[in-house]
Amino acid sequence: MLGSLKAILKTTTVDEVVRCHPMPGTADAKDESSVDDSAYSQSYTRHLERRLRALETEKQILQAERSRLEKETQTLRTELEKLRQSPLITATITEMLEDGRAIVKSSTGPNFVVHVASSIPKDKLQPGALVALNQRSFAITQELPPSRDPIIRAMEIEEAPNVSYQDIGGLLDQLREIRETVELPLLKPELFEQVGIEPPKGVLLTGKPGTGKTLCARAVAHETNATFIRVIGSELVQKFIGEGARLVREIFMLAKEKAPAIIFVDELDAVGSHRLDIATSGDREVQRTLMQLLSELDGFESRGQVAVLGATNRPDILDPALLRPGRFDRIIEFPLPDDASRREIFKIHIRGMNIDSAVDFNQLLSATQGRTGADIKTMCTEAGMFAIRDNRTCVTQEDFRKAISKVQERGLGDHAPSSIYC
Ligand code: ATP
Q: N or C: which end of the chain has fewer CB within 10 A?
């Protein structure tokens, strides 16, 4: 500041001398010098004011920068603290004692009697709750959210699927039965109470692959606004002892949480086949999973708004225990679609397609005898692909002919791998 003042003084003095050359000691010279002085001090004051404003702005910028850096340091310190902290041990509460302590089973194995940190509300600590223990004192320091197996999280869960009854061709009797046994108990449970009967506990859908079992289950979930939980039976077969049974338990817990819900167990035969007398340890694990499934179906605890649907291509190998009344007591068979049903299925799958008006559907129907709904869907997609390959936007009879023979060549018919086993 002082430096700039001196510089200005210096410049101004030289300028004045050069510009005016007043004779020293004369009145003129005095007047002129007083005018120059006041002009100079005014301009100098303005200059100082400008400089002050600039410095104040600079100060504000620096203050903002400083508080930003302080925040960043704080965040980094907290992060560092977190990284330095020793890990906590997970444990499950088995019992709450009257003196406020708890008996826990730690994930490392042994059981401990531990104190509870006063910051945790006591009412949240129920037997079965998951908690974190301090590594040294084993005191409960945190209450954790209930654990859920990663497989369950990855399971196919749809909140009300987007398939409706209008998307199903034929299968009128099957749909009526499913609606009676699944839709009514979910939508009008009071009807069953008034009549004084219990709704069927489980419904088993049987039939060749691609006959629309999953489709119907999803459509019911859509119509009842229920969460659709699809489990593949083979995924319930786990490597470690007790894992499969735990999965089944957790799936039913999840369904209760998301109720109304429909649990759809596809490939039920993977866990539900005949139990043998001579069994390997692997077989015994599958049996344990099956027993858990049976006990969930029996409804040791009330299942509430949860319906269970199973599907299999091999009802003949299912364990009779699964089929006894009170478990999968309704069996609905899905046949191959007849002419009328195939016409309906074709109509559904060509709904959005650009079809040549000359396409003869009677011919298509006779060429697709013995095919499933899934085959017909594939044929329609293939016909569309043939049109695209020829640079056309309209699908012709010839495209359908080629598509049908392509699907037949692929062995989706009588020689399909699935039909070898059915
Ligand atoms: P899997 O036993 O292999 O699980 P699935 O019987 O469950 O077979 P879906 O998955 O329901 O067979 O059917 C496959 C596809 O076939 C459906 O997504 C649907 O597009 C079509 N499909 C099957 N049946 C019908 C039908 N009756 N109406 C309309 N589309 C159908």
A: N
**Residue identifier of the C-alpha nearest atom 16 of ligand 1:** 374
Mean pLDDT, range 51-70, rounded to an integer:
96
**What pLDDT sits at residue 76?**
94
Range of the domain at 134: 89-144
Report the DSSP pairing between strands 261-266 and 306-312: parallel
CA distances from 307 to 191, 237, 242, 265, 296 (A): 16, 22, 24, 11, 11
User: Do residue 62 and residue 100 come from a single domain?
Assistant: no
**Same domain (yes/no): 181, 274:** yes
What is the model's pTM?
0.63
For a ligand 1 pocket test, name from 167, 211, 234 the mutation site with the most ligand atoms within 8 angstroms of its C-beta.
Answer: 211
- Angle at the Cα of 349 (from 347 to 353), degrees rounded to 5? 95
- Whether residue 225 contacts residue 270, with contact meaning beta carbons closer than 8 Å, is answered with no
Q: Are residues 31 and 97 in the same domain?
A: no
Q: Work out which ligand 1 atom sits closest to the CA atom of 218.
A: 11
Residues 206 and 175 in one domain: yes
Does residue 283 share a domain with residue 268?
yes
Q: Which two tokens stand for residue 155?
A: 């399971």
Query: Which atom, in ligand 1's list, is nearest to the CA of 170?
Result: 27
- Higher pLDDT pick, 329 / 132: 132
- Please count the structural domains in the chain: 4
For a substitution probing ligand 1, which of 165, 167, 215 has the most ligand atoms within 8 Å of its CB? 215
Of 127, 144, 161, the position where a domain reaches its end is 144
